[in-house]
Amino acid sequence: MILATINPSGEAELRRLLASMNHEPGLLDPLNALVPFGQFDRLHFARILILDDQTLNDITVYDLPRVDYPTYLAILGDCDGPSDELLAEMVERAGDGLRRIFALCDGYTPDIDLLTWIKANNVSPAANYVNWIGRTVRQVGEEETLRQALEKFLQENSVSLRPMQPRQVRDVLKKFVATEEQSGRIILTPPEPTPLGWQLCNLLHLVGMPILLLIVSPLLLLALPFFLFQLRRCERSDPEIAPRVDPAHANLLSSLEDHGVTNQFSAMGSIKPGLFRRLTIILVLEAIDYTARHIFNRGRLARVTTIQFARWVFLDGKKRVIFASNYDGSLESYMDDFINKVSFGLNIVFSNGIGYPRTRWLLLDGAKDEQTFKDYLRRHQMPTQAWYNAYPGLTALDRRRNALIREGLEKSWMTDSEIQEWLRLF
Amino acid sequence: MSNAPIDFSDIQGLVRFGYGPLTEASFLLLNIRDAQAARSWLTTAPITTAVELDHAPMTALQVAFTREGLEALGVAEGLLVGFSAEFLSGMAGQESRSRRLGDVGANSPQFWRWGGPGRVPHLLVMIYAQPGRLDGWAQAIQGPGWNAAFELLDHLPTSNLYGAEPFGFNDGISQPSPDWKRQRTPEEDEVEYGNLLSLGEFLLGYPNEYGKYTHRPLLAADAPSSAVLSFAEDEPDKLDFGRNGAFLVFRELQQDVRGFWRFLDKQTDANTEARQNLAESMVGRRMDGTPLLPALTHPIAGLDPKFVAQNQFTYDLDVNGIRCPFGAHIRRANPRNADLPPGSNGLFARLLHKLGFGNARYRDDVVASTRFHRMLRRGREYGPKLSPGEAVADGPDSGEHGIHFICIVANILRQFEFVQNSWVMNTKFDAMTEESDPLLGKREGIAGCPLVNTFSLPQETGARTRIMDVPQFITVRGGAYFFLPSLSALRYLAIISRK
Fold first, then answer.
1. 3-state DSSP assignment of residue A68
2. B86, B101, B362, B469: best mutation site toward chain A, by most A Cβ within 10 Å?
3. C-alpha distances in Å from residue A52, one per residue of A56, A249, A312, A356, B81
4. I need a surface site. Which of A298, A378, B154, B356 has the fewest CB within 10 A?
5. How high is the ipTM of this complex?
6. Phi, psi of A298 (to 5 degrees)
7. Contact in structure between B80 and B87 (CB atoms under 8 Å)
């Protein structure tokens, strides 16, 4: 996430610039003149937003003074391969637009090397979730083309295919794809092998973190009663701040949503004051990052199948957090999923934010107070000024289905029932 | 929470009864000409309550207001802001809402006969009567001050199709059961589909399925004229304007009966039986109402005994959508699932499923829990009967056919709008793509999804059969969000004076 402080005198111009990237609010022109995200073929999603925190007064409920943090500009992206490579590509192809944007921010002048500056201002996330680690933009596009071609073939040949056995049908489809591949109408690039270095790092992280946990576990066990005591003390006294949502704010956010099948979500808030809450959220996000990396990396974040990418980033010396996600369906269904399917997950992270609906034992209640939670969420949500989606018509489940279709074609041997299950993908 | 028994005399009858025997009905969309005269009328209007009588009444009258109507009546801004955002905005008040509801293209509010920008009625007067009595009743309810009070925006007649909707399918079979006895305590995670739901899902002022109270306007105890209102259960120092009231969603849906049957006739090469089968696959029931799924051996909590044979099923036995296609209308409108996937009965299995493990397929456990998204349906048909045979054959113009879709909910956004957006209109519902509800669904492409009008019929063996280019059969002609006040709220409305 590239973070820059906006120069107050330049904010109005910056808003105009960002608005110019869109056909209409909520609908980006992927090849806009400023930052043509559509030109970067390894970019899944991207957004540019002004971090306009409307909740800075909330901290006063703890008898602490309001802090007037500067207004930041954030540029987030989800890409294949190392982010440094994408950033270099962006500087090369969209350098002018980026320079215009950063000229309105503090700390950037035209004589500074853009790439160096961007890299210096690139903040690492505290936790990062990817729906399917390793699925590339190219793969998504190729597999959708594959599915569409196969659907068309199945439809056009439905009469002749009807009496065939599933195995025969698959053979016919395989032949069809082979012909299409030869003529170049279908391209199925073999997946690039995962770099050994990455695999090694991943393995180290996979085993290293639990080992670390094991080592410190005696300390953790010792600290547990204090933690629980302090937790309940906080939970009983922490105030809720979730007034009925401001209609103007909700309308603005709404106008940017539901133009397609996927939506963006950007929210930020201040962490509850005190070492306890800060430590808790740091540990929780570390744990979420771990599970997202090693456990929930195959299509589901616990029970939720609709999040394509999500990320948490600390700001301002870990006093504030920004959460950004790309999810399928409407906000209402997104919140419904979370409240009814993974409320414990929401509670464990977000209950460390000021004003969150009251929880018990970190996991219980909280988001289950449905209306209060929805009001809270909308309150912390910020409009996203520019939002890019490489494949606006494809949900996470679509991408998974397409990958399964391809897998079924390329498998050397399948049983009869496997083939029947494969045909059900269409 | 107090479990005080329900005062049925304070609730408008439509929440509890569908008035089946009152086969004549019409709906009047009115604007308030003079607030004082309107309030006068309210004082004496014979509104039907939810009290169960020994004999079914011969007539019934219900009244509901839009936000515009409450404003015209003189309700203070301070009270109005207590209502939900969607009620205040209105069904057609925002482009983003219309996008979500599928009110785009031919369904856009700009083309509506009523309810579109500048044409939102103030109130809805619903009159029901036994055969032959409607005209007399319509006169009777008006009273002397009627013309001074109201201006008729539109009059929506209904017709009696003997329990069927205009395509010919028996309708109104599946209804949730509100927990009138207030005995239900919803679990954190319900592992069985149940039809009995917390009263607060349908009536404001009572706990909903989350055990909480849906937002509604509350007044300070010393507010003027408020003595007629009761105190809020969850905030006993405030008076509850919404208590015993509900929201009523009204959508006039024109049905192209000829277009529907002709399309199916063409798809099945004029084979009458196949044509009916295809229609039944699209709807999700046989025309006589028989479900496509076999009955469960164990009962479902809260089923109306009258409809057990037709309603005692879930889709757990049809995981491949062969008996009832995934995209069939009733499967979309009510997926009948529990909070956790099937097989979550043991502690370990439950934990496994809660963490998202134990799913055999990518498409398992992708639909939201039904119990938070139900609605009481009180719709009525309009237009003459046109049988499938008649619809297919050439004949004189039969005029317009359709259904006045009416549902009663406590939370418009979570119940009606959610079902409409996430289930009915959604081309990605239940891990599918490129199709939305065969009856109601939108046929306009959206960004990245040019193909939206197919319908899938999964098969026992082989790939599915796919119907392409399903035309639009239903067009929205009007609609609005109304508030159906309690009798005491109506008394309050009758006595407030303009600030």
1. coil
2. B362
3. 10, 12, 16, 19, 26
4. A298
5. 0.96
6. -130, 55
7. no
Chain B contacts of A369, Cβ < 8 Å? Answer: 210, 212
Nearest residue to A69 via CA among A2, A6, A1: A6
Interface check for A93 against chain B (CB to CB < 8 A): the answer is no
Structure-token pair, residue A223? 């600290």
Mark yes or no for CB contact B462/A169 under 8 Å: yes
Q: At A65, list the tokens.
A: 């003074």
Identify which of A22, A69, A38 has the alpha carbon closest to the alpha carbon of residue A256.
Answer: A22
d(CA A136, CA A263): 20
Contact A387, A264 (CB under 8 A): yes
Instruction: Let me know if B174 is exposed, middle or buried by CB neighbors in 10 A (0-12, 13-18, 19+).
Output: buried
Token pair in block for residue A342:
């993974």
Residue B320 per-residue DSSP state: T
Report yes or no: B343 and B365 within 8 Å, Cβ to Cβ.
Answer: no
Least CA distance to A155: which residue of chain B?
A: B466
Taking each helix axis from N to C end, the angle separating A416-423 and A396-410, rounded to the nearest 10 degrees, works out to 140
Sign of CA pseudo-dihedral B222, B224, B230, B233: negative
Average pLDDT value for residue range A357-365? 96
B285: β partners: B291
Segments in B81-197 forming alpha helices (H): 85-89, 95-101, 134-142, 146-149
The closest CB to that of B96, out of A154, A258, A420, belongs to: A258
Q: Give the gap in angstroms from C-alpha A309 to the nearest C-alpha of chain B.
A: 17
Structure tokens that stand for B244 in this block: 């015993």
pLDDT grade for B443, boundaries at 50, 70 and 90:
confident
Distance, CA of A38 to CA of A201 (rounded, Å) = 31
Chain B residues inside the 8 Å CB shell of A151: 466
Report pLDDT for B497.
Answer: 67
Flag whether the pTM goes above 0.95.
Answer: yes
Nearest residue to B494 (alpha-carbon basis) of B129, B73, B71: B73
Q: Tell whether A51 lies on the interface with B, counting CB pairs under 8 A.
A: no
Is the CB of A27 less than 8 angstroms away from the CB of B447?
yes
Measured between CA atoms, how close is A196 to chain B, in angstroms? 29
Amino acid sitting at position B130: Q
A167 touches chain B (CB under 8 A): no
Q: Across the interface, which of B320, B362, B421 has its CB nearest the CB of A404?
A: B362
The vertex-B354 CA angle with B352 and B360, nearest 5°, equals 60
Rounded distance, CA B92 to CA B343, Å? 42
CB contact under 8 A, A155 and B468: yes
Q: pLDDT tens, A14-69?
A: 999 999 999 999 999 999 999 999 999 999 999 999 999 999 999 999 999 999 99
